[in-house]
Amino acid sequence: xxxxxxxxxxxxxxxxxxxxxxxxxxxxxxxxxxxxxxxxxxxxxxxxxxxxxxxxxxxxxxxxxxxxxxxxxxxxxxxxxxxxxxxxxxxxxxxxxxxxxxxxxxxxxxxxxxxxxxxxxxxxxxxxxxxxxxxxxxxxxxxxxxxxxxxxxxxxxxxxxxxxxxxxxxxxxxxxxxxxxxxxxxxxxxxxxxxxxxxxxxxxxxxxxxxxxxxxxxxxxxxxxxxxxxxxxxxxxxxxxxxxxxxxxxxxxxxxxxxxxxxxxxxxxxxxxxxxxxxxxxxxxxxxxxxxxxxxxxxxxxxxxxxxxxxxxxxxxxxxxxxxxxxxxxxxxxxxxxxxxxxxxxxxxxxxxxxxxxxxxxxxxxxxxxxxxxxxxxxxxxxxxxxxxxxxxxxxxxxxxxxxxxxxxxxxxxxxxxxxxxxxxxxxxxxxxxxxxxxxxxxxxxxxxxxxxxxxxxxxxxxxxxxxxxxxxxxxxxxxxxxxxxxxxxxxxxxxxxxxxxxxxxxxxxxxxxxxxxxxxxxxxxxxxxxxxxxxxxxxxxxxxxxxxxxxxxxxxxxxxxxxxxxxxxxxxxxxxxxxxxxxxxxxxxxxxxxxxxxxxxxxxxxxxxxxxxxxxxxxxxxxxxxxxxxxxxxxxxxxxxxxxxxxxxxxxxxxxxxxxxxxxxxxxxxxxxxxxxxxxxxxxxxxxxxxxxxxxxxxxxxxxxxxxxxxxxxxxxxxxxxxxxxxxxxxxxxxxxxxxxxxxxxxxxxxxx
Length: 754
Known about the structure:
Elements: H1 3-13, H2 20-26, H3 34-46, E1 51-52, E2 58-59, E3 66-73, E4 79-83, E5 94-96, E6 109-117, E7 123-132, E8 137-144, E9 150-154, E10 163-165, E11 178-185, E12 193-202, H4 209-217, H5 226-234, E13 248-249, E14 256-259, E15 268-274, E16 280-287, H6 289-292, H7 298-306, E17 310-311, E18 316-317, H8 322-328, E19 336-346, E20 352-363, E21 366-369, H9 370-377, H10 381-386, H11 391-411, E22 421-425, E23 431-436, H12 441-463, E24 470-472, H13 478-489, H14 504-514, H15 520-530, E25 535-537, H16 561-574, H17 580-619, E26 627-636, E27 639-644, E28 650-654, E29 663-666, E30 671-674, E31 680-682, E32 686-695, E33 700-705, H18 706-723, H19 741-749
Parallel strand pairs: 5-7, 10-12, 13-20, 14-21, 28-33
Antiparallel strand pairs: 1-2, 3-4, 3-6, 4-5, 6-7, 8-9, 8-11, 9-10, 11-12, 15-16, 16-19, 17-18, 19-20, 22-23, 24-25, 26-27, 26-32, 27-28, 29-30, 30-31, 32-33
Helix pairs in contact: 1-3, 4-17, 11-12, 13-15
């Protein structure tokens, strides 16, 4: 009996915590199965699916007001537990006060007891057991105190302890260097954590060290194993002619790849034809990674663990070794390549009237960039002459794009289309400039083609009951929608729908109303927070944001493991290999894979965002005293988050700098309101701010509101004037104006005093 089967029986038939003997009796199991039952119980207890009490009784956690989940600790000492599975009467994460953490650390899987609900309805609890530590290593700054004791201060401020390093275990690290430390003893009952240095990363000022720190902090595997590299190398760089047998031959089609200028791994190629009946024939060809990466191989095991490639400003950490990603599986031009293909006939209304899926072979005619295709479609004479034979194909692509985009719009798909930041780095990996990333029609063409291919494949798999991984985006939580509606109503907007019947099209219409207005970005940001996070699941639950009934990731198997799973399960079904036994195995194993890949995707996003934010802080280091326009992107009891318009940098206006009044936090209205002045700072408001501090230690840009700083300075001058009208002998007269004005003038004049 498997652990999952035993758990299911216990849930169905056992009404209270029971001993092994009682369980055997209630479940009518023979004594010969006792050893297997004990092993299964241990496995279930280890992962938190069952609880073992001190009296060796086994019970279901949720029936004991206990639940397993993963803990996120805030630098201020409190925490939240995200449950592994939903529990009735609990919405959102469980709040845990600092004194109830009981030695749990950020990232641990824990068992939490729900003790009561706060006035806002949020569940509050305490940690009763640590099921699994979040990591065995951490990265931090090595240091030595005045008594000669060695310790490492974690880079992650959510790890609320220093790690002591015994003499001899420092690996030659010098004070101030960033190191990786292995935890030998976790903090417990007041005893500090103990560890040993296993890697010296280097000084923070060394180029590339910041990326290495983020990689180590998030536990991202940085190097591929020798075994997987050897496997990739053995595959070679040219396809075996025997592999073409039995495949659909698309080499006579005009197929091209369209990617960014710096792309090296090309996993999708497209072609568009016009049929005699007036319909379009779209062919989306995706690199057939599943043909080369067999289940259980070193390449497969490593890719499953990584789950995704991670993209940093100056480098990428690929899911597969470069020998595979940029070699045999990359759809380079003028060479034969194996693909899995979705062939779709699309009518004038954008409907896929007929579709077929193939194992194929292609010969790409050209490696195009987005900018080249955009120039062609904008009438650039030189580019149109250079790619003359291909121009009609690109024009057909634009026609089909418009049709598909209009169809998505009609059904209510939400397109934010907000400008994104493009980071320009210098030779040392530091930000040289931050610009608006151009997103032209060529980007939109490829995006639209990939969307319809993903939908078509998902609909096929769902219709044939093939166990696989779907990309799902559930409808937003009703309470969050109500709070969102309450806020936008104060700005004169509305979703214009009953809260229990809000559809994607209602959000879409709001986005269109906001287009080009000052409040567009902050309201869109809040709208995204209102939405659920997209994730992977074995159930085809649809995609709310795209207004799609079925959606799966099919188009990027080189960089996303769920896409490889979709290819693999699709091939199993089409080739008649999905036996009843294999179907059952897939049903059993895929839920855990869905959870893992979703978690790894979040890890990659957090790592990418954190490094970019850190580089932005460094970029602002020499801009103290400068003033910028921005808008309020978040309001909290401790202050406001401000997004600068010019550099796309986010900073914090701490409540302590709002010294012209007592400001009260109004959570549901997303406001800070002055008690005496009645001055309101509200989410989305434009605001003029000054950089007053760049804190490299906390990796934070501290800002001040210019008008508040001016009022405070004026008030201080008036108080000074009432005290004394004369300037004492030897005193330095303070220049009038905003804080930092004198400093800026000195800097511009190229003079100053130390």
